[in-house]
Amino acid sequence: MKKLWFFKEMIHKKLNTRGFTLIELLVAISLLAVLITPAYGLVMNGQRVFMTEVDYQKVVSDVHMFFEYVNSTVRRAGFTGVELELDSTGNPTGTEYEIVSIAQIGGEDALKVKNISYTREGTSLVKLVTLPSGTLQREVMVDHISGFNVTEDVDAGIIHISVKISHDGIDEVVSTKIYRRYQDE
Known about the structure:
three-stranded antiparallel beta sheet; 38% helix
């Protein structure tokens, strides 16, 4: 009979052994949600900041590539050119003109190199090429620009270019100097 009592007790314990109650599960899930929600917010904020910084660095990199491109273009172009014409006696005469010049296009500063102009349109830095047919070809070089300024120190032969970048609340002015190459260099 003693054996039977032990067996009954084991069956009774197995029936009374149970997992978590519904209330315990709900409390555990609620606590987990309270802990995970702020952590998720931190991770998402970190991801947003990271992507903003990556995008901003891409814009800065594009501006530096633009500076290198313009520097190369200006230095290859030289300083002045000569437009040959025939005078009334049929002899060639030359009229000197600026290959590289600073102008205004649509109220914005522009750097002109031969048939190419670099200027700001809205929030983009654009390259405008006048084709031999007279049509204008437009190419966006850099986006997220809020300012473009070109000045020249004629005596020193230096062109100063500054670009104001505005991207997701970050404003920065990036500038460069281009030393013009004269004909005798």
